[in-house]
Amino acid sequence: TATLGELYDLQADPKELRNLWSAPAAQAVRSELMERLARAMLEAADTSPYPTAWPDLAGQMRVTTRPGDL
Question: Which helix (H) or strand (E) holds 44?
Answer without folding.
Answer: helix 27-44
